[in-house]
Amino acid sequence: MRTVRAPATSANLGSGFDVFGVALDRPADVVRVEKAEKTTIEVTGAGSQYIPEDPEKNVVGAVAEALDAPAHIRIDKGVRPSSGLGSSAASSAAAALALNGLYDRGYSRQELVPIAAEGEAVVSGEAHSDNVAPALLGGFTVARHGAVTPVETDIPLVACLPEIAVSTRDARRVVPSRADMDDVVHTVGSAATLAVGMCRSDPELVGAGMDERIVTPARAELITGYDDVRDAALAAGATGVTVSGAGPSLLAVCRGTDRARVASAMLDAFEDVGVDARAYQTKVGAGATFH
After folding, report:
1. Cβ distance 5 to 39 under 8 Å?
2. In CATH, what is the architecture of 156-283?
3. Which residue intervals define the domain GHMP kinase C-terminal in the entry (predicted)?
């Protein structure tokens, strides 16, 4: 048996659509695998009633097939599905690392990224690496053309998850197919600022680098109260706020002493628009670990 904990993640970070990602130190999924003649799956935990246990429809089934590693796989969900916090990526990454160890396949974590991304294709229709890369490698990651660059960093964060469902497929449908050149130039500048901020562990630069005018405004329309919650977080001391992944979670960058105040402000703002929510006071954390 192998048991692996894989963290929630946040992708895009505003200016890095389909490229940037970070691992969060909480919440997380725990996946246990045992060798078997054919793959079977059990799911418990947050939102488990909505997750299929058919290996052909579950992300970990795709990972087991890609590794030629049939197993009985038990998933304890700590990351709610359709949260914008990399729920499918956490399960995929944990299963990839656990099955790689169970069958002694010998892949490095970098080599497991595209294998874990096969699980993402089950959910979104495409094998994206922006969530599975930080789930496996930890820290801040840049995933581009099959190559992944990880950066260790120390950035305080608040992830606020409202009780709203936004599917990855729906969130991708609203992404504009064209963009104004001024907005593209603005996004490039923001992405560069964010990357430098991550390398320096500078929350001011990271927050400023989240500002983006193409994808985020379109996805924000799917989240009740987005503008009010963002404004409340900034007023409470956040240096930047954006949609986490496909949403509906919002991700706020903070100075370490401001996290509790920012979390409280975001929860109050959601409550004011009639939406229940949960806030995680977290930070950029490590990747998947054996337990």
Report:
1. no
2. 2-Layer Sandwich (3.30)
3. 196-270
What residues act catalytically?
120, 168
CA distance from start to end of the chain: 11
CA dihedral 28, 34, 35, 36 (to 10 degrees): -100
Instruction: From residue 242, give the alpha-carbon distance in Å to each of 84, 148, 213, 217, 276.
Output: 11, 23, 11, 9, 19
Among all chains, which residue has been given the structure tokens 């659509």?
Answer: 17
Task: Name the phi and psi angles at 41, rounded to 5.
Answer: -135, 135
Identify the CATH number of the domain defined by range 2-151.
3.30.230.10
Q: pLDDT tens for residues 196-244?
A: 999 999 999 999 999 999 999 999 999 999 999 999 999 999 999 999 9
Q: pTM for this structure?
A: 0.95
Fold match between 2-151 and 156-283? Answer: no
Alpha-carbon gap, residue 7 to 90, rounded angstroms: 6
108 marked as binding residue: no
Residue 80 marked ligand-binding? yes
Dump pLDDT digits (tens) for 235-281. Answer: 999 999 999 999 999 999 999 889 999 999 999 999 999 999 999 99
- Burial code (b: 16+ CB inside 10 Å, e: under 16) for 155-164 equals bbbbbbbbeb
The answer to the question of whether 201 is labelled as a binding residue is no
Determine how many CB atoms are found less than 10 A away from the CB of residue 124: 16
- Gap between the Cα atoms of 199 and 213, Å rounded: 24
